[in-house]
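Hi V.,

You were right to ask for the full record rather than a summary. Here it is.
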Amino acid sequence: MHVLILGCGFTGRRVAERFVAKGAKVTVTTRDAQRLSDLDVHVIALSDVQKHVREGVLVLRSIPPEGSSGIAELLGDAPARVVYLSSTAVYGAANFVDEKSEVDWTNERARPRLLEEECVAKGPWTSLILRPAAIYGPGRGAHESVRRGTYAASENFVSRIHVDDLATHVEAGLLSSACGAYPVADEDPATTREVGEFCARLLGLPNVPTEDTSRVIARRITGNRQVDGSAIRRKLGITLAFPSYRVGIPAALGLP
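Predicted structure:
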């Protein structure tokens, strides 16, 4: 089995670890090869992809749209399967999202992702498009923002997915025949206030600033969305190791 990971970063590394453990040949592109020095993977430049693509390769595309130009041409018709990591940003201003929700082509933030999704879906391979909510885990997420003092609370809802659970989706998706596009999230959407206060208690810190008392930081808060990601879990036959931030954040902090 040969797996090609285009964009082996926060999520991609965890996918690579899983396939290395299966004995697969894993080839990756990354902006920081040093971070992968402990893994038995072959690091290549994106421009060299065409030289390393083999018939039947399983491909994870995890590169933002601004870095994706020409990838379809580099892959040709060699891949048997492509999983693309998109974003719930494709739903625009929708407040509730599930597998039946419409995307928003009029949204400027959504359009580049939707064009990439369209490119993947039209390719000469089977494909699955995963649209994750906010990805968090060790070193990344609300707990880190709270610790740095750059977090602002509001009553806006945000859905999340632990990076290890997202890797589970990708692994299962690459090994399945499931097709289509699905949102990915855990089972516990919560307001940024709830999550921030939970993190502050874990870290033994004062309450986080609010929109009223920290306007500059609060301007970073965008969206107000609850995501139901249960459909793709049922389709892939997987379960979450971290169904809520209440278990995922302590784990990310190395707490029992």
